Amino acid sequence: MSKAYPMSKSRTTQTRLILPPDTNHYGSIFGGKILAYIDEIAAIACMKLTNQEVVTASFDSVDFLSPAYAGDILELESIVTSTGRTSMEVYVRVMAYNVKTGEKKLTTESFVTMVAFGEEGKPIAVPAVYPETEEEEKLYKAGMERRQLRKGKSKKALVQD
Ligand SMILES: CC(C)(COP(=O)(O)OP(=O)(O)OC[C@H]1O[C@@H](n2cnc3c(N)ncnc32)[C@H](O)[C@@H]1OP(=O)(O)O)[C@@H](O)C(=O)NCCC(=O)NCCS
Question: How close is the Cα of 20 to the center of ligand 1, in Å?
Answer without folding.
Answer: 35
